[in-house]
Design brief:
By secondary structure, the protein is α+β, with helices and mostly antiparallel strands. It folds into 2 domains: 108 residues, Alpha-Beta Plaits, CATH 3.30.70; 107 residues, Alpha-Beta Plaits, CATH 3.30.70. The protein is built from 5 helices and 10 strands; from the N terminus they run βαββαβαβαββββαβ. The strands form 2 sheets. Strands 1, 2, 3, 4, 5, 8, 9 and 10 form an 8-stranded mixed sheet that branches. Strands 6-7 form a two-stranded antiparallel sheet. The chain starts with a strand and ends in an 11-residue tail after the last strand. 23% of the residues are buried.
Length: 229
């Protein structure tokens, strides 16, 4: 048995592909290019492959991870090249590395993620002062729907925010960057943070949806997930 961690991007129209459909896409592609995945035991065997963290529908990403187990060893470059030769435009494998057998999965190690938020041309961004005052609050309370049932609960998201600032991309356009809690233990929806920030700053978030991209995922110690050992 061999384990591999694949880093990939999801962009363009593929951002509207659901988590389940993306899993099916990878499954078909592995089969098409002849990668022999290991299957689970039991009455309903399924290939041993899982994403580190689901990506919300409509988001793009250049920092997604897929963990797989294969029956035989493969060259890492071969896995990258063979998958990219068959995957559709919008999904591209960026890197691959073999990882040792361990009870800890990639999904169990995810604790933080970087996001970039782009707003429509000319839309106001919070100022540096507004960002500082927002983060200096004793608590940042927001309402969200409870996991079970329809009840709304109030939570403090301040401990879930590691970084929040504005920056400029390579094209000179302003973006909002954030590093927030992500994973099975604690997860902050970027849009929940955006809503709270813009309400605090007195800025109306226009009806146009912000473009949200996940950039990278991290372990608790701050190392990128690609450093999994």
């Amino acid at each position: 048995m061999n384990r591999y961690l694949l880093k990939f991007e999801k962009t363009g129209q593929l951002r509207y592909t659901s988590h389940l459909d993306l899993l099916r896409l990878f499954r078909r592609t592995f089969k098409r290019v002849g990668i022999d995945l290991l299957y689970s035991q039991g009455f309903n065997p399924h290939p041993k492959m899982s994403f580190a963290q689901p990506l919300s529908l409509g988001y793009t990403s250049i920092g997604e991870y897929l963990e797989i187990e294969t029956r035989m060893p493969y060259n890492e470059s071969f896995l990258v090249d063979s998958m990219n030769s068959s995957l559709p435009y919008g999904v591209k494998v960026l890197a691959c590395r073999e990882i040792p057998d361990s009870p800890k999965t990639a999904a169990s190690l995810v604790r933080w993620a970087d996001y970039e938020v782009r707003l429509p041309e000319g839309h106001a961004f919070p100022t540096d002062l507004q960002l500082r005052l927002f983060l200096d609050q004793d608590a940042i309370l927001v309402s969200k729907r409870a996991k079970k049932g329809k009840e709304m609960v109030e939570i403090d998201i301040k401990p879930m925010i590691h970084e929040l600032q504005t920056a400029f991309d390579d094209d000179g356009k302003q973006v909002l960057t954030m590093k927030i809690r992500t994973g099975s233990e604690s997860n902050l929806n970027p849009e929940l943070l955006l809503g709270s920030l813009f309400d605090f700053s007195g800025i109306t978030l226009e009806k146009y949806e912000p473009q949200i991209m996940r950039v990278e995922m991290y372990r608790e110690d701050g190392r990128p997930l690609s450093s999994i050992e």
